[in-house]
Design brief:
The chain has one helix and five strands. The protein has one helix spanning 17-50, and strands spanning 57-60, 65-71, 75-81, 84-89, 93-97. Strand 2 and strand 3 (75-81) form a beta hairpin.
Length: 105
C-alpha cells in the first residue's frame, strides 16, 4: 500500500568561527561607535576638571556661567555676579570657557 517516507538524516552542523562572525562584527562596531568615544570624552572631562584653577570661567551642567573663586576637593565656589557666590559640585562643571567670555555676555 502506502509506504512511510522517512526524512534523510541531517548533516551535522560544523562548529566553527563562521557561526560567531556576525556576533563578533556587531561587538566591534559597538566598540568603535559607542564605547570608545564615551571613554575618550570621560578622559577629557576628568583631565579638564583636574586642571581647573582659580579665575577660570566655566559653565555648569545646569547652565550657570561663572568665575571660579575657590576650589575644594569636592566643591567649587563660583562667582556668578558681583558679590554673588554659589557652591557647586566639581563634577557638575561641564565646559571651560576662554578668558573674558563672561564680560562679553
Amino acid at each position: 500500500m502506502i509506504s512511510l517516507a522517512h526524512a534523510q538524516a541531517a548533516a551535522p552542523a560544523a562548529p566553527g568561527f563562521t557561526q560567531f562572525l556576525p556576533l563578533i562584527i556587531i561587538f566591534i562596531l559597538f566598540w568603535f561607535m559607542l564605547i570608545r568615544p564615551q571613554m575618550k570624552r570621560a578622559k577629557e572631562q576628568k583631565k579638564m576638571l583636574s586642571e581647573l584653577t582659580k579665575g577660570d570661567e566655566v559653565i555648569t551642567a545646569s547652565g550657570q556661567v561663572g568665575k571660579i573663586v575657590k576650589i575644594g576637593e569636592q566643591f567649587i565656589s563660583l562667582e556668578i555676579a558681583d558679590g554673588v557666590i554659589t557652591h557647586v559640585q566639581k563634577q557638575s562643571i561641564q565646559t571651560l570657557l576662554p578668558k573674558g567670555t563672561i564680560k562679553g555676555i
